[in-house]
Amino acid sequence: MPIAAAALAAGVATAAATPVGLIDVHFHPMLPAIKQLTAANPPANAADRAGLNFILDWGESDALALMDASKIDVAIQSLIPVQGMPADPAAAQAFVRDVNRQAAELMQRHAGRFGLFAALSMTGPDQALRELETAFDDYGADGIGLLTNYQGVRLGEPVFDPVLAELNRRNAVLFVHPIIGNIPTPRVYNLAIGHTEMPFEATRTIASLLFNGSFDKYPNIRFIFTHGGGAVPMLVDRWAQMARQFPSMSEQVPEGVNATLARHHYDLATVAHPTPFASLSKMAPMNHLLFGSDHPFLPIAAGARGLGDLGLSADQYKAIARENALALFPRLAARSASA
Fold first, then answer.
1. pLDDT tens digits, residue range 188-210?
2. How far apart are CA 202 and CA 219, in angstroms?
3. Which of 22, 168, 211, 235 sits at 20 to 30 Å (Cα–Cα) from 306?
4. What is the enclosing helix (H) or strand (E) of 289?
5. How far apart are CA 264 and CA 36, in angstroms?
6. The whole model's pTM is what?
7. Cα 40 from Cα 43, distance rounded (Å)
């Protein structure tokens, strides 16, 4: 599918004003396994189905052209099935096997342009640990990308402790992305799920990790939460007050809610705008904020342009655009140092 001339023109204009090459930590390649799963499980809601065409028409050459136009040096792949992981364990495992292999092949075809947050099926601890080992040891993944829930069970629940323990042992980066497929949510008019529900899904899962003690038990995991942590910046002080009131909550976050959440990382997909950014930047330090485009669900050029509209200093811009990501990902840092 040809790239729209307007999108390319916007990207070129953005690139001309961008002083450094960007590292995009929130990039969804619509690989064959994702397209196949999406086509086989179309959303029931008309507003959600309307988004299928651009997913199914995605192509890597078009994506690379858009990256170049917005001066994105590297995009780290997030392998998110739109409707969530298949409920059948065998189907989920087959999807993960295929999509991780396809993502690794994309990295090989375009050396240096793509990283990888590998997917796990989470169908059982032994299977997930095997997939995790393959991702790091065979495919050289930069981290793991997990959904906020699997068949309605959130990441903070004890069933997922073996996976979090292994990620902790490896000092791994864990990219957490919301998905609504298995959570019944009330509809607001006929809006697509992404228009309203995604930020709240992320928020609920961050709460599950926080108040089940996962952040305290697994301090070596470097979490990245998408979309600026959803509604968390607006709730952080409310949660902190609740923790002070209820000992059963406070004992799960011994360093305090604010300090715990400030340890982790947040991408700016959908929040590269002065209003939400003001709240996020009060919750998390500037060196824990990362550029993310959310391609192809959002235009790459819009995210790059939004970063330039935040009124950042040159050093702050460079940190969010690439330096903070280089600090998280040794492979990218080594490549940058040798370039």
1. 766 777 778 889 999 999 999 99
2. 20
3. 235
4. strand 289-290
5. 34
6. 0.91
7. 10
